[in-house]
Amino acid sequence: MSDQSSQSQSLTNNWDSLQVEVAQYINSDVRVPLQYSENTKPLSGFVQRLKGKHGRFRGNLSGKRVEFTGRTVISPDPNLKINEVAVPILMAQILSYPERVSHHNIERLRQCVRNGPTKYPGAKFIKHPDGTEISLTSKVRHRHADDLKYGYIVCRHLQDGDIILFNRQPSLHRMSIMSHRARIMPWRTLRFNESVCNPYNADFDGDEMNMHVPQTEEARTEALMLMGVQNNLCTPKNGEILVASTQDFLTSSYLITRKDTFYDRASFSLICSYMGDAMDPIDLPTPALVKPVELWTGKQLFSILLRPHAKMRVYVNLTVAEKNYGKSGETMCPKDGFVYIRNSELISGQLGKATLGNGSKDGLYSVLLRDYSAHAAATCMNRLAKLSARWIGNHGFSIGINDVQPGIVLNKEKKVTIDKGYGQCIDYIGSYKSGSLDLLPGCNNAETLEANITGTLNNIRERTANVCMNNLHWRNSPLIMSQCGSKGSPINIAQMVACVGQQSVGGRRAPNGFVDRTLPHFEREAKDPDAKGFVQNSFYTGLSATEFFFHTMGGREGLVDTAVKTADTGYMARRLMKALEDLSVHYDGTVRNASVCIVQFVYGGDAMDPGQMEEKSGLPLNFERLFMKAKATCPAVEQKSLSIEEIDKTMDEIIGDRLSESTGTPEGESSQAFSASSNKEGGMETFDNSLRKFIQKKYPNSDLMLKLNGKEHPDEDKGYLEKIASNICGVTRQQLMVFLETCISRYSLKKIEGGTAIGAIGAHSIGEPGTQMTLKTFHFAGVASMNVTLGVPRIKEIINAAKKINTPIITTALQSDNNEIIAKIVKGRIEKTLLEQVAKSIKTSQASRSASIVITLDMTKIQGAHLSVDAYTVKESILKTKRMKLKEQQVKVLDHRKLEIVMHADKKKLQFELHGLKNKISKVVVKGIDTVERAIILNEAKEKDPSANKKMKLLVEGTGLLSVMGIEGVEGRKTTSNHIIEVQHTLGIEAARKKIIDEIQYTMSSHGMTIDIRHMMLLADLMTFKGEVLGITRYGVQKMKDSVLMLASFERTSDHLFNASAHGKVDKIEGVSECIIMGIPVQIGTGMLKVRQSVKPIELTYGPDPIIS
Amino acid sequence: MVETLFEDIFRVDELDPDGKKFDRVSRISARSEQFDMLMFLDINTEIYPMRTGDKFMMVLASTLNLDGTPDSGYFAPGNKKSLADKFDYVMQGKLYRISEESREKQVKADIFVSFGGLLMQLKGDPSIAARFELDQKLFILIRKV
Amino acid sequence: MLSEEEISRLYRVRKTVMQMLSDRGYLVDDSEIEMTRSQFVQKYGEGMTREGLVILKPSRTNPSDQIFVFFPDDPKVGVKPITISTKRMADEGVRRAILVVQQGLTPFAKNCISEISSKFHVEYFLEAELLTNIKEHILVPQHQLLTPEEKKTLLQTYTVKDTQLPRILMNDPIARYYGLRRGQVVRIIRPSETAGQYITYRFVV
C-alpha cells in the first residue's frame, strides 16, 4: 500500500519535472517551482532563440550578415569629388565585382585574370555560364586568361568608378547610406570629401564606416539613381540642403570674400587654377581695380568659381542675409553681411554658413540645385573644396593663447558689470528676506527671487560677452570661425575670454548637496551668485575650486543626459519605423498601408514631395527669389514694361491655359460630383491663387510711376521717367512669362512620385531630430511659473498617446478677453478652491452625545478672489462630495457666512470621527473643478503698449477640458488642451489629429527644428485612422497591423507566435518586415510594379554591330 | 572725345561713417558740387589714400576706349591709350540696382554699382539715373583736384 | 425650483440640442436656435422643470420620422424614467429619442436602453457635453454624412472596401452629435495648411 503510494508519488514528481523540462525546453524563462529548479545549467529555450535583439527575428531574419563589405577608419580628403570615396587598395583586392565578359572589356578583364588575386587590378574567380567557378590563385590563371570568352563572369577587384554603398551607424535617416563611386587609393583609410560629413554625421576623430559592393548591374543602377549622393543633396525632412560646405571651407570662403582681399595678376591666376587643378578653362575677368595697379578682389574669385567661363550657362541669383548683417541697408551693409549674387556675379557680401552651409533653403547650393541641377551644385562644391583647402593651406589658420587674452577694456568693463549685477542680486536677496519682493504672476517668494537672480546673472554674461565680441580684432581666429559659422558660437568665445557664467543643473542654479548649502565653502541658506554656481572667471583666467566644482556639476548633467537620451530616442525611432514602414504613396495619390487601407487620401493634402519644397515654411516655391531670377536673367533690353492691366491679362492667359489642360483629362470629367481628384486640384488651385496674389504684390508701385500717371508731363520728361520707373520695378512681358512658366512647370515636377515609401521617410524625419534635441526639457508657457514639458519626453508622450501626461495645460479663451475682473471671476470659477482656503475658522465643539463643527467663512477673502461662495453653496458642495456620509439634516446653515455640522455617534468613537470629519471637511472643494491644479491669467497683448486692448486668456494647469469648456464666461469653442487623449474624448478624433500635429510642431519648433508639416500630418493620420488615437507602442501597433510576422519581429515575439498558431492565423506577406523576413522584394518603390507580359528572351550578340544589315 | 555718363567734382565729407571695418578698404561719403549728388564709395585706401575734405573729380564711363567703342567684356591689357590715362584711380564694375526714395514729395533715385565687391551708391536727381541701365558695365575714374 | 445657474445651463444645453437636431436634418425653426436667455425664461416661465423642456421634432425630409428629446429630472437616471419615456414614444409612434441627463445613467438604465434598441433608438448625452457645441470648436472640422449612393461612388473611385477607409468610432463625440450609425461614411472637410482645403472620409464603426 505504502509502496503504491510512494510509486504514485514519484510518478507525479516525475510528471511534474517532465512538465518543467518541456516548459523550459520551450521557454527557459518560465517560472518553475523551487524544488525543480536545482539544476541551474544555462539552457536557452526556443523562445529565447527567437526573441530579443540577437534572436532569430531581429538578429537573423530582419537583418542578415552579408558578403562584399568593408569597414575601416575614415579620414577627409578635399581633393575627392563629393560623390567619391577613396577605397584602400587592400580593401579593393578583397572586395570584388562580377563583371560579364563582353567585346568591350575582354582585354581589360584578361589582364585582371592574369594579375590574379594578389596583384591589383586583378581578379579572384572566373564563373562559367554552366556554373563552374575557377579560383585564380594558381599559376594556371594565365591559361584561363587566354581562354576567356564572351559571357564568362570575372570576379574582378574593385576599380575606379565602381558603385559602392557607404554607411555610418547609427543609420537614422536615409542619407546615412548613400552610394558613391570608388577611387582606389593607397594607404588604409576610407576617405571622402568633408562636404559629405553632414548626412552621415561623421567626424574624423576615429569614426569607422562601412561599405558594401552591389553585385549586379540592376542593383548598381538602382543604387546610383536612388541612393547616389547627387540625388540626396537635400533632406526629405524639410527640403534643406544637407550636403554642403563645412568647417575650413566656410572659413576660407569667408576670408577670401572679405572686402579688403586683393590679388595681383599672378596670385589671382594661381588661385583660379586651384579650383579645377588648372585643367578647366577660365575667363579672366577685368580687374576690379584697373589703376594705379591691376588688382582683383576675392569676390571676383568667387564669381569665377560660380561661372568659370562664358560657355557655362549657370546664372545664379540669390540674396542671403549672413550672420553679421546689420539689419538694414541691404547690400550697403557696412559689415558687408548681405550676400547678393546676380547672374553668377558676387555683388556684395562676405560668404559664410548661411550662403554655403547646410540647413538653409536659399543658400548657394540650394539655388544651384533647384534652378539648375544636382550636378551643377556638386561641381560647385567640388571646386570650392579644392580651392578652400589649398588656399587655406597657404594662408594659414591657427589658434593660440593670444586669441583668448582679454584686453584692458574688457577687463574693466567686466568688473563693472559683475559688481553691478552682484549688487542687484544682493538687493533682491535682501528684499526676499524682508518679504518685500514684488511677486511675479503665479510665483511665490522663493521662485520670484530665483527668476530675478537668474535673469540678472544671465544678463551679466551676455553683457560681458558683447563687450568681448566687440573688442576682438577681426583677425582673431575664434571670432572668424564663429562669424562665418564654421565652428563655435559667441558664447563659446565669451566663455574662453570673458566669463563662463551661470552653471545650471536641471534648469535651476546649482542645488544644495549639503545641509542648506551647495558646498561647505558657503554659509547656510546662501543665495548669492557665487554660492549657487555663478562662474565669474573665464577659461583663460582659470576657475576657482568652487567654480570648478559647479562647472563639473553642469558638465555631468550634460553627459548623463546624452547617454540617457540616445537610448530613449533610439527606441522611439525604432517604434516609429515599425509603425510607419509600410505606408507608401500609391498611383492614385492615396497613402495606404500594406493591407491597402487608406491612411490619407492625398499625401500631405497637396501631394507635394516635402524634400523638394523651396520655401522656408514648406510651400513649394519661393516666388520672391524666382521673380528676382526671372528679372535678372531676362534683361529688359528694348522691351517696354507692362502696365497693371497687361500683367493681369498675361497672367490670366497663362494660368488659364493650364487649368483648361488639367480639367481636360478624362478622370477630371468622370468624377464631377464626387471627384476623387477634387483634393488634387484643390492643391493646384491654392497654388494658382498664391501665385496670383504674389504677382499682385509685385505690381509696379514706384512713386515715379505714380507721378507719371498722375500729372501731365512734357514729352521728353515722360520718356526718362518711364525709363527709370521700368528700371526700378517694371516687368516686361518676357520676364513675366518666364517667371510664370518656371513656377508652373516646376510646381508640377514637385509632385510626390507613386511608390514613394513616405512612411519610412516620415519616421526618419521625426526620429532623427529627436537625437539632436538637447536637454531643454522645460519651457515657460508665457508665464514664468507655468512650465510645459518639451524635448524628447514630450515627443514621447505625444507619440505614445499617453493617458497621463506630465504637464497638462488647458488654454482657455474668454468670452470677453479685455476685462481683468471678468478674467479673475472666471479664474475663480475654474480654479480648485478648498474649504480651508476660504474659511476663517473651522471649530469643533463636543457635548456628551453629539458634536458639531462650526465653519465660519472669510467673506473678505472670498470677495477679493471674486468667488461666489456663501454658506448655502458650501453646504451643497459638502453634500455633493463623495464618501462624506453626511445627511442633509446634519448640515445646518446658520447665516450666509456660518454653517454647522452636527454629528451623532457613540461617545467612544465621537472624538475620533470628529477629527476625521474635520480633516475631510477642510479638503472639500467649494468652487472650481477638482482636476484643475491652478489657473493663471495671461495677457497676450504687448506689455509695452498699455493703451492697446488687453487680450486675456487663462492657462489652466490640469485636466478636465469638458468641464472648463462648460464654465460660464469661457469661450468653449476656442478652448483647447495639450492632452491629446482628452481632446479625443471631448472633441473627437479629428480634433485629436489636429492637436497631434500642432503639439509635435510646437515641440520641434521650440527646439529650433523645422520639419515639414506633411510628415507630422502622416503620423497624426496614422495614429488616428482606426478611429481612436493609437500610440506608437506595442499596443497601438498591434491594432494598426495585421501581420503576425511583423508584430513578432517588433516586440513580444513569443506571445504573437503562440497566439497565431493557436488561432491558425494567415500572413499574406505584404508588409515590409514580412517581405524582408521571407527574403522577397518589398511592394514599395521600384518593387511596386511587376511586368505581366511574357517577353521572348532577347538574343544578345556580342561583337560590333554589323554596319549593313 | 569719349562720351562719359556722368562727371562731377566731389568733396569727401566723411571717412567710414559706420566705423572702420576693414584694414585696406574705407567707405567714403562724398557730395558733389554740380548736381548735388550724395555718394558712398568703397575705396582701397592702401593704394589710394583719401582724407576728409579731399576734393576729387569723378567720372563714370561705360568704356575706357578713347574712340568710344564699347567695352568687349574681356580684359586685354596693353599700352593702348585710354581714358584712364588722365586719372589716378580707376575701377571697373557692374550696375546692379536702381531704386528710388521719396521724401516730402522729392523723389531721389539711387544707383548701385559693385566694383568686384567694392560698392558705390549714388543718390541724386532721377534724371541722372535715366542715363544708366541695369547690368551695365561701368568704369569709375577718379582724379584728385 | 431651479437656481439661476441651472437655468443658464439648461438654456445653453437646449440651444445646443436645437442646433444638433437641425444639423441632423430635423425641422427646427431658426427662432428656436437663436432664442435668447430672457426669451427662454419667458417661454418656460417661473416653475421651470427639466421635464417641461421636452422637445419633439419631425425630420425635414420625412415628417413621419420624429425624434424626442427628454430631460429627466433625476440627477442619476434609472430605469423608471426610461420606461415612462418609451411609453410616450410608443404612444406617439416615435422611434428615436435623446435623453439629456445630469450626471449619468445607472448601469440598469444602460442595459434597458440596449434591450429596447430593436424597437426604440435611444441616445443619451450628459448636460456637461452639451454646454458648448463641439461642432463649432476651432479644432473640429466640418463633417457631412454621405448618402448610400455617394458612398458607393467613393468606394468605386478608390477601389476599396468600406473597412479599408479611415474610421471613426460610434462613440466619438462628433459621431454621437450627428447620431451616426455603423456602416455610414462621413465626409470631413478640413482646412489644410498645405492645400487650403482637404477632403477625407471616415467609416463609422
Keywords:
heterotrimer, A: 1109 residues, alpha+beta, Dna Ligase, domain 1, Enzyme I, Chain A, domain 2, 7 domains, 6-stranded mixed β-barrel, 4-stranded antiparallel sheet, 41 helices, globular, C: 205 residues, alpha/beta, Dna-directed Rna Polymerases I, Ii, And Iii 27 Kd Polypeptide, Chain: A, domain 1, Eukaryotic RPB6 RNA polymerase subunit, 2 domains, 4-stranded mixed sheet
Describe this entry's structure for a reader.
The complex is a heterotrimer of chains A (1109), B (145) and C (205). Chain A is built from 41 helices and 35 strands. Chain A is an alpha+beta fold and 1109 residues long. Chain A has a six-stranded mixed beta barrel. In chain A, strands 3-6-4-5 form a four-stranded antiparallel beta sheet. Chain A has a four-stranded antiparallel beta sheet with strand order 33-34-26-35. Chain A is globular, with a radius of gyration of 37 Å. The model of chain A is unreliable at 662-677 (pLDDT under 50). Chain B has 145 residues and is mainly beta. Chain B has one helix at 126-129, and strands spanning 6-15, 25-32, 38-44, 55-61, 89-103, 106-115, 118-124, 137-144. Chain B has an eight-stranded antiparallel beta barrel. The model of chain B has no long low-confidence stretch (mean pLDDT 83). Chain B has a single domain (4-144), classed as Nucleic acid-binding proteins (OB fold (Dihydrolipoamide Acetyltransferase, E2P), Beta Barrel), CATH 2.40.50. Chain C has 205 residues and is of the alpha/beta class. Helices cover 37% and strands 23% of the residues of chain C. Chain C is built from eight helices and ten strands. Chain C has helices at residues 4-23, 30-34, 37-44, 79-92, 107-115, 127-130, 148-157, 173-178; strands spanning 55-58, 66-70, 76-77, 96-101, 104-105, 121-126, 142-145, 167-168, 185-192, 196-204. In chain C, a hairpin with a 7-residue loop joins β1 (55-58) and β2 (66-70). The mean pLDDT of chain C is 87. Classes of the chains: A alpha+beta (1109), B mainly beta (145), C alpha/beta (205). Chains in contact: A-B, A-C. At the A-B interface, β12, β13, α11, β16 and α24 of A face β3, β5, β6, β7 and α1 of B. Chain A: It comes from Erythranthe guttata. Chain A: Residues 1-257 form the RNA polymerase N-terminal domain. Chain A: This is DNA-directed RNA polymerase subunit.
